[in-house]
Specification:
CATH architecture: 2-Layer Sandwich
CATH topology: Nucleotidyltransferase, domain 5
Number of domains: 1
Helix content: 25-40%
CATH class: Alpha Beta
Strand order of the largest sheet: 3-2-1-4
Number of strands: 4
Radius of gyration: 13 Å
Shape: globular
Number of helices: 3
Largest sheet: 4 strands, mixed
Distance between the termini: 16 Å
Structural class: alpha+beta
Length: about 100
């Protein structure tokens, strides 16, 4: 997957990692090999909200990372789901990021 998807300075890569309990998202610039920002269900601001279902937490991670990206003047990203199917928590995170203002 990563051979076909790369992030640039103008359009970095939004990477998803999903574990059994948590979901993680990072915005990466592949040309500089730098993580610009990241968020997960373990982030303090998201954890404080005590959301009951994993899908609600994933959507909140998407909104949170979109808000942080807007602060760094990032509007467009390349979505890298790392081979996970586009449903469930991955879809909710993507929808949350779109609601927050990111364009894929």
């Amino acid at each position: 997957m990563r051979k076909r998807i790369t992030g640039t300075t103008e359009r970095p890569r939004l990477v998803i990692y999903r574990s059994n309990r948590n979901i993680f998202a990072q915005i990466v610039n592949d040309f500089e090999n730098k993580v610009i920002l990241g968020a997960s269900t373990l982030t303090a601001e998201i954890k404080k909200k005590n959301l009951p279902t994993p899908r609600e937490r994933a959507k909140e991670v998407g909104k949170y990372i979109a808000k942080k990206a807007a602060g760094k003047k990032i509007k467009k990203v390349v979505f890298d789901r790392q081979g996970y199917k586009y449903h469930g928590n991955v879809k909710e995170l993507a929808d949350g990021a779109r609601e927050g203002g990111l364009e894929f």
